[in-house]
Amino acid sequence: MKIAYLINTYPKPSHTFIRREIAALERLGWQVHRFAMRSDRASLVDPVDFVENDKTEHVLDLGKKTLFKTALAWMAKHPRETAAAVAMAWRCGSKGKAGGPGTGGKPRHLIYLLESAYVASRAQDLGIRHIHAHFGTNSATVAMLVEALGGPSFSFTVHGPEEFDAPRAFSFPEKIARARFTVAISSFGRSQLYRWSKIPDWPKIKVVHCPIDTKSYAPPDPMPAIEPAQGPHLVAIGRLTEQKGFPLLVEIMALAAKRLPGLRLTICGDGELRALIDSEIARHGLTDRIEIKGWMSEAEVRAAIGRAHALILPSLAEGLPMVVMEAMACGRPVIAACINGVPELLTTTEGWLVPAGCAQGFAEAIETLSQCSNATLAQMGNRARARAFARHDCDTEAAKLSALFSQVTSK
Fold first, then answer.
1. Does 195 share its domain with 311?
2. 243, 315 in Cβ contact below 8 A?
3. Is the whole-model pTM more than 0.85?
């Protein structure tokens, strides 16, 4: 009943779903050892994440001497497997040049090989029989190399959208073929994995949703009233990156504000586009309408959702965003881009689905929301909560993973 989770950087503020998944598996009796290549401690805000960070073995924090000594000792004991793993690393590295989307080229893959040999050695010491990687990028590469080096079997979860940008550079066909199983977080994600795998491997691709801890959600806060001729208070949550569409959101707000003088937006998150978004807010004259709060704890994010009338998600690329299910679990409707896995969770009875990238469509949805009665918005929020609870309960989704882990560890 002992397995390991392997993530490149863990924990991160955006990785609460992994923490919940591990906790649910542990409640089912699994012992889960956390491996990560590096820590993101400087970015953590939530106290629970600091505890999780201390539970995680961060490989690159050990220092080069320990890493090289342990890795080379393992390789010396497994020469045949090492030769095969070197060829695999070189082959995978050949599919993407250095600086490409997550591939790193051949030199980076030789570093992955050393990391994998260390993990294989530690897995043997700890009695770990299977490793599950989150994200199909370099963490899944390390897990695959661990097995090639004579370590435990592996599986991995693909989220998107990064993985969908360069599936062959990430060696998806080989990873899916060698993995005991592969997890997609939505039916859309599974359909993409079908594209990059052989038909005989399709039965190994399973859908397991990202989880929310439904027991931790208190009854929804009362829906705030929308004052006549004013406008709703919206909340947006996420990393300030190109995928999440926050520059587009500023344009959406500028369009909607022409009709709704009291419209407000709170952004919970931070990231590489912060300076650009700040400048766009100023350029559109929206500094009194849009507030960026930065990273917040889970409790603070839920409080921000509770003060809003709806979540808005203008993403240009997505997997199946946690923020949508979290807002729904908090009893709030959602205005979201109709993209990738989003329409599997959100329907028009719990919010509004807008063509991705359509600023005018989002602005019209905001205006429609502003015309809804308080009772209508509350009803939409209640339906949203019920749907999120039914589809994303952490114990239900963990049970699906548990059954898969039981199958591979019993062989």
1. no
2. yes
3. yes
